[in-house]
Amino acid sequence: MEHRWGQRVPAAIKVRLQGRPGAIGSGCLRDVSISGAFIETALRLPLLVRIDVDAGSRKLAGWVVRRNAIGIGVEWCEFAPQAVLTLLAQFHLPHPGWRTAVPLHGVPQGSSRSG
Fold it and tell me: What is the pTM (predicted TM-score) of this model?
């Protein structure tokens, strides 16, 4: 069973992808969370390959953790990267508690993300 750290928020953001070693393509970020995303793309990447996602001014690094006929599931290399937190704050708040779970300016002293 799959467990996610954050609620997925629907999106429709054009992205440029670069997989290791050198696979380049484009796609559309269909949903995003603090732990990962689903990207619709024709680019065929193997599981566990590192990928860079360029969404204009937002640059994200992740790993391909799922594939299906229309795209890939990506887990971010860094949990709750600032670029994703900014994106979520700009467009949606998945539920009222996500800001307190992972503040925009990092985890408060003495708290834990594994909670």
Answer: 0.73
